[in-house]
Amino acid sequence: MSASAIFILDLKGKVLISRNYMGNVDMNEIDHFMSVMQKMEEDADTSPLVTHGSSHFLWIKHRNLYLVAMTKKNANAALVFSFLYKIVEVFKEYFKELEEESIRDNFVTVYELMDEIMDFGFPQTTDSKILQEYITQQGHKLDVGAPRPPATVTNAVSWRSEGVKYRKNEVFMDVIESVNLMVSASGSVLRSEIVGSIKLKVVLSGMPELRLGLNDKVLFEITGREKSKTVELEDVKFHQCVRLSRFENDRTISFIPPDGESELMSYRLNTTVKPLIWIESVIEKFSHSRVEIKVKAKSQFKSRSTANNVAIMVPVPSDADSPKFKTSTGSCKYLPEKGVVQWNIKSFPGGKEYMMRAHFGLPSVESEELEGKRPITVDFEIPYFTVSGIQVRYLKIIEKSGYQALPWVRYITQSGDYQLRTN
């Protein structure tokens, strides 16, 4: 990667804190960063890479801060940016929010963290759980009798400490899928995708190895089981604990997990999703003095599943008043600050259809004609259900002491960006 130095600046370009890792750059070069940035902004040509002479500045902005990596070499830009975002993540774990004030209030801790997460321009330990074992906001936790950091830092498994012990060994796995959907006013699906993640809560002693089996299309083709129901995962991203070489060779997801909570993997499926909750709406206007909105909501999944905490947001004209509602189930409330009626249905079983009517007065005549047609949006969560059909076929837990451990798997489908346009 070879980042020679890292700087954290305020919005005016003043250096709050910096660290020279390689000693091969003039730290005063950072003074040119802001002037080059301002010139680029004037030319409407902002770039994440700024060059002055032989110095290259790779930067990101977070709240009221610039985080800047400086290098004179042909560095791996993707790795540098990934590292800058990782710094933000670590600092947020420590200070709840990363902003100018939290840097000023925690100079000692920030310096210690900057020393540990990079060494001679190369990233080292960036896992906040491990860092918190020996860098605390009260300064070093290590006493004179233990001058070395935990073995984890020099260990191949840098994300898990040795000697973890629990009386009851369990793994909780959540397979969570978010549905992003946009439906046109004529009822055709304009955009649909599933964004999934597998989250872990690990309560296991020792250094266990876990092996996860999914109904992965590529794996089933390799093993000659094409007829089984499979999913074709795209854009798969793994936690650093997963052995990528094993996955690339034979699609085995094998890993020593971090202790506690973590995201094991994320994936995406570009697939046409049948809208899980279908909405139809009709708006009737009466001589510009009142408006009536009729909404029909239909759940298009099997009756054995139930959507929980459904919230249907129906846009209304900005000058509407005197709301009256009638629903076949659930409750309605008018949220004038958002310009919507929110229809809440606590429990919406599959294969059901419900109706809502809203009646409003319209004091002004013209304004609503100028407004753009905003879509109806829907929030929901369906437990014990995945829209993609992904399945955990097995989760094996292997640990040298041979203890028995229970794996628990839960499936959840929820709304992401879920919009239905109206006429």
Fold and architecture overview:
The protein has 423 residues and is of the alpha+beta class. The protein has three domains: 150 residues, Beta-Lactamase (2-Layer Sandwich), CATH 3.30.450; 120 residues, Mu homology domain, subdomain B (Immunoglobulin-like, Sandwich); 107 residues, Mu homology domain, subdomain B (Immunoglobulin-like, Sandwich). Helix content is 17%, strand content 43%. The chain contains eight helices and 25 strands. It has a nine-stranded mixed β-sheet with strand order 13-15-11-10-25-23-18-21-20, with no helix packed on it. The protein is globular. The protein starts with a strand and ends with a strand. About 2% of the residues have low confidence.
